[in-house]
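Hey team,

Filing this mostly as a record. A colleague (T.K.) asked me to run one chain through the structure pipeline before their review meeting, and I want the input and output archived in the tracker in case anyone asks later how it was produced. No errors, nothing strange. Just documentation.

Input sequence:
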Amino acid sequence: MEVKLETPGGLVRQVRVRIPADKVARAYDEQIRKIASRARLPGFRPGKAPLNVVQKQYGDSARMDVIQDLVRGSYPDAVTQAGVNPASAPSFEVTAEKPGEPLEYVARFEVYPEIKLRGLDQLKIEKPQVDVTEADVTKVVDSLKKARRALEPVERAAREGDVLQVDFEGSLDGQPFAGGKGENVEIEIGQKQFLPQLEQSLVGRRTDDAYDTAVDFPPDYGAENLRGKTAQFRVKVRSVREPKLPEVDAEFLKAHGVDESAGLAGLQGKVRAALETERDKAIQNRLKQQVLDQLLEANPIDVPQALVASETQRLREETAARFNAGKLKPEQKQKLLPDEMLAPQARRRVSLGLLIGEVIKQKQVQFDQARLDRLLDEVSADYQQPEQIRQYYRSRPDLLQGLRAIVLEEQMVDALISGVTPTEKALSLDELLGSKK
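Output structure:
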């Protein structure tokens, strides 16, 4: 078999393959004999028809089958002989296939890029320094209490923190506008979930109050027809209720998985431990993001379009599932999430995947099974029956492979920053987690 490698451009490669005529002839004769052994032709017993009769009846289809088998069967040896590593499935074109002559074909495919890593010794890492404070713990405990609060009606005037049930209807120049009407709407004064002037107008109001108030829409308001306009709102207060937070009693503690004997201190300790875990994960994610961004910036590479297309489809399915659109038809998903929207992220994923693989190989990173076990414990810890979750992951190679990829990525990050002295930056927990309230 003769093989010639050609490089049309970029990552595209093609091999021209020439299979000797005698090999083609032997394969054809063998195929005819196979057909003859089971052929049922008029005037002959099954499998007893002469070869020339069988060849006249089935010769053309037998030759096409032989060509297809020879092309696909010889392709793996051809790319090995050419010394290339295909990254995509090939397309075939038969260029010569006359009886008695060699079979010639061209296989066209993409290859993985040749990667020469740069910039690994020039990483600049900023590591957040974050303390979990008593205020952070108190904030979470207050949130837990607020989630189980009761709302009690009051006769007094409304003040900040109260929850009011109201009807309202807005108008511009005396005309109602779309989206300007609400009935039995709950507004908590101070939460800034509604237009500020409308919310603040509720302060001092009582149950059954009805009043008019002017509200200015900001210049960047979502509805274009309301931007920068002043509307008049008619408001009716149906009720004023004051939130009552629960006591941290036995029932409250039990609801949050804390023994009664541990009391408030036990709840605070559990909250602190959870915040510290969340902090450590967030710090690790920031370090990883810095490494990946710099790795990608220092090592721009061409990526096989076939891999980008495959990753684009995977992103489409993931995104559709997140938005409960997984049951849409493929053409509906394509319209909702077109390739041009997803391709940049897919290309980044493919590039990082190739670069990470090269770093792992260059740094000789060995997979850490103990780290995978710890990650599996973390994933299953939030469920009532964690051992069942662990067994479920272990029974699903695809899910387990996803966790393995996370572990290897974290090990790669550790290997790259092991020789780097990071600069430290003090942050609050809210700043680290992206909540700057």
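Quick notes for T.K.: Residues 325 and 333 are 8 Å apart (CA to CA). The radius of gyration is 35 Å.
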